[in-house]
Backbone:
């Protein structure tokens, strides 16, 4: 059971980190107001 | 005189759209916050608002009012990209853009004469206008009496006295915004000499035939006489350039100076209006106090020394004041991790939670007090008006490297985060100056570097007293920030003399009077900054810590049972994906004095710099049974020969590497966009990444090899 939980948590983390990378560069292609949610700039 | 506006009245059931514009330092953004409740960073120096920020609130009749905060501007010029946006919005020419029903002009009651220049231009656009006479309390305190009914009569638009920082005058202002749309559209309040009016008629006709409102065309016709280059939004108007040349020639022949005509006629009218409506009963106390402070703060020698002293105090306080809070957070995280660990059975899940989550994220969260202290100081300097003085002091330095003085503000923003810093370059008119600034902003040490510096300084730099109140730790931190700043200036000079050659332009900067910072605004900005740090630790850093934990744990091996538990764990770590990647990277980082663990932590932190600290936390959490703090483990870490892995020289080299390296996805992404997007954007983002990496590697190598040669190794 604990192995399944570990696999789920690690898969979720890989998916999230990947999606953030994708979002950052997708935003670079199309201008929009403000920056990404992870930039830490406060705007 | 201009013709009346032909714009249709808005439908009462729709949301009312209000655009806010005003000179810098009028409290425009504070008023925006007071109206909408939206929070935004407020600064005392020009150009802080470079983004379109929208908010909304309910009017007294329940109608929704949508407000757009436009960039601060002294006049309706269209020199920089953000000024162009403001002009496009106000002229309501582009159907795709936001079209205001009312323009709210925020005017500083203390400096009415200067502020009315922009207001008089906006009034001529043919859009309903309301004027907020802000900082009315300061004007009264300085003995300035404004006859508001007479001023309304002179300007022909509703005027509401306000004190935005205390929320005074907001209800009458909301009512005035709703009423303004029912009133006839305002128009020019002064008459041009007949010869001028006749000369400008063909120019106005060209603009009207291109879709300008007649009143806006009259304003533009007068304005374009004084501009050197045709603005982007006028470049496409057929025959305009020729008509303007002819008008200028006619006016010159008639004895007028076309380039100064607009300012002469407007200021003549403004002087007349102010003469009727404003009385001054005493000398301004606040200004004279500011003048006295500025005698020191802007002194040729004393000014830069005071600036350095303030910075030293800031960075020393980051260490001195944060220490007890950091110890508290560290103990809290350790006990929480321990408590959760005891609830879980021995195995991978427990290791994931204790080493991956608590070890990784916890090692970054510990730096929250330092983030709070740093941004409290930066906020104090900004809100008090000192940062504008710092910009003034830096202007000479900026010009010496070929940058415009305006570049200082984006570079200053870079201390917080390179992303808003790069976006703030939109206030720079010249494309080459702007690009040169974009290229060097990431060299300014951002808040993400703070955990890396603090970890390494805390572990390897002794707290030896250098001066009263300044230790070697604080001085080292200041040194890292100065190193980044000096490198940014040198690189800017190189860019401006090679790839981005161009002339240097002078800067005009308004120095606002010194003010007591609003504790509420300061508290909000520090809170926002801390929450963003926590949010980032709980999302990006958490996910990367978990991924790195998995890489440090799998595949499993059967350790030699003859070895000690610690050595068995070390064997497992070396066998893991992370260990194997680390050994592949090791030859590249070995010349810098780093082992595979540092190498893999650097590689992981290319996504975000703080990941260096969380990766170290995970690696040393996975590889050890000992619960000692990360700094202790780093100090005691030994290689296979029993030699200490981390020497002060390696630590300094690592910090220098982090000063220069561009390790932030968000920064590269924003550079692609702001450098022009597409292939051009990618090219400049690539140049930025490569030159910064080369600089980082070269400088870290020089520190390590040079230090060893000098006997520091």
Residues:
């Amino acid at each position: 059971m604990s192995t399944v939980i570990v696999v789920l948590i690690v898969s979720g983390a890989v998916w999230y980190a990947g999606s953030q990378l994708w979002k950052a560069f997708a935003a670079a292609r199309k201008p929009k107001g403000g920056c990404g949610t992870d930039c830490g700039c406060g705007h | 005189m201009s013709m009346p506006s032909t714009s249709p009245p808005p439908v009462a059931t729709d949301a009312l759209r209000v655009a806010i514009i005003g000179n810098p330092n009028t409290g425009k953004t504070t008023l925006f916050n007071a109206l909408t409740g939206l929070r935004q960073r407020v600064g005392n120096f020009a150009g802080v608002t470079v983004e379109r920020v929208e908010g909304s609130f309910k009017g007294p009749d329940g109608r929704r009012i949508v407000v757009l905060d436009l960039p601060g501007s002294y006049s309706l010029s269209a020199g920089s990209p953000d000024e162009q946006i403001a002009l496009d919005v106000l002229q309501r020419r582009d159907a795709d853009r936001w079209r205001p029903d009312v323009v709210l002009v925020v005017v500083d009651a203390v400096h009415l004469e200067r502020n009315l220049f922009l207001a008089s231009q906006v009034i001529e656009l043919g859009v309903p206008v309301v004027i907020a006479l802000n900082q009315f309390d300061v004007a009264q305190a300085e003995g300035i009496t404004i006859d508001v009914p007479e001023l309304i009569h002179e300007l022909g638009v509703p005027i509401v006295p306000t004190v935005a920082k205390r929320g005074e005058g907001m209800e009458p202002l909301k009512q005035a915004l709703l009423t303004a749309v029912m009133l006839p559209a305002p128009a020019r309040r002064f008459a041009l000499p007949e010869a001028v009016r006749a000369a400008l008629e063909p120019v106005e006709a060209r603009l009207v035939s291109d879709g300008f409102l007649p009143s806006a065309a009259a304003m533009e016709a007068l304005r374009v006489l004084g501009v050197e280059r045709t603005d982007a939004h006028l470049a496409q108007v057929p025959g305009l350039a020729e008509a303007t040349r002819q008008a200028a020639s006619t006016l010159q022949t008639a004895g007028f100076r076309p380039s100064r005509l607009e300012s002469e006629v407007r200021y003549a009218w403004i002087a007349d209006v102010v003469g009727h409506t404003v009385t001054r009963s005493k000398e301004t106390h606040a200004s004279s106090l500011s003048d006295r402070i500025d005698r020191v703060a802007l002194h040729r020698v004393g000014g830069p020394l005071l600036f350095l002293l303030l910075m030293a105090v800031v960075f020393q306080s980051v260490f001195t004041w944060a220490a007890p809070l950091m110890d508290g957070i560290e103990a809290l995280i350790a006990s929480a991790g321990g408590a959760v660990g005891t609830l879980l059975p021995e195995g991978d899940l427990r290791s994931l939670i204790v080493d991956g989550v608590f070890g990784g994220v916890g090692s970054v969260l510990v730096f929250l007090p330092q983030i709070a202290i740093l941004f409290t100081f930066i906020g104090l300097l900004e809100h008090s008006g000192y940062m504008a003085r710092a910009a003034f002091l830096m202007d000479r330095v900026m010009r010496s490297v070929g940058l415009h003085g305006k570049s200082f503000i984006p570079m200053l923003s870079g201390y917080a985060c390179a992303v808003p810093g790069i976006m703030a370059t939109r206030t720079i008119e010249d494309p080459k100056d702007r690009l040169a600034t974009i290229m060097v902003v990431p060299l300014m040490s951002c808040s993400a570097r703070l955990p890396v510096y603090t970890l390494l300084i805390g572990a390897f730099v002794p707290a030896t007293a250098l001066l009263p109140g300044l230790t070697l730790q604080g001085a080292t931190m200041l040194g890292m920030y100065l190193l980044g700043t000096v490198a940014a200036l040198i690189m800017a000079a190189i860019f401006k003399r090679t790839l981005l050659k161009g002339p240097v332009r002078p800067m005009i900067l308004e120095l606002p009077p010194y003010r007591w910072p609003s504790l509420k605004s300061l508290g909000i900005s520090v809170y926002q900054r801390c929450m963003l740090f926590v949010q980032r630790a709980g999302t990006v850093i958490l996910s990367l810590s978990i991924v790195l934990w998995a890489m440090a744990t799998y595949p499993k091996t059967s350790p030699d049972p003859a070895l000690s538990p610690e050595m068995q764990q070390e064997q497992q770590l070396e066998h893991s994906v992370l260990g194997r990647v680390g050994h592949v990277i090791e030859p590249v980082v070995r010349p810098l004095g780093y082992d595979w663990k540092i190498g893999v932590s650097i590689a992981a932190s290319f996504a975000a710099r703080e990941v260096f600290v969380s990766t170290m936390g995970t690696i040393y959490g996975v590889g050890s049974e000992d619960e000692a703090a990360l700094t202790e483990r780093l100090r005691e870490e030994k290689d296979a020969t029993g030699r200490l892995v981390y020497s002060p020289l390696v630590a300094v080299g690592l910090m220098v590497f982090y000063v220069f390296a561009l390790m932030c996805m968000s920064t590269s992404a924003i550079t692609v966009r702001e450098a022009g997007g597409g292939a051009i954007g990618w090219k400049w983002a690539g140049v930025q990444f490569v030159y910064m990496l080369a600089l980082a590697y070269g400088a870290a190598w020089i520190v390590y090899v040079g230090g060893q040669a000098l006997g520091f190794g």
Notes: The interface with chain A takes residues 40-41, 51-52, 344-345, 347-349, 352, 416-417, 419-420, 423, 447-448, 525, 528-529, 532-533, 536, 539-540, 542-547, 549-550, 607-608, 665-666, 668-670, 672-673, 677, 681, 685 of chain B (CB under 8 Å). The longest strand of chain B covers residues 16-22. The mean pLDDT of chain B is 83. The first helix of chain B runs from residue 28 to 36.
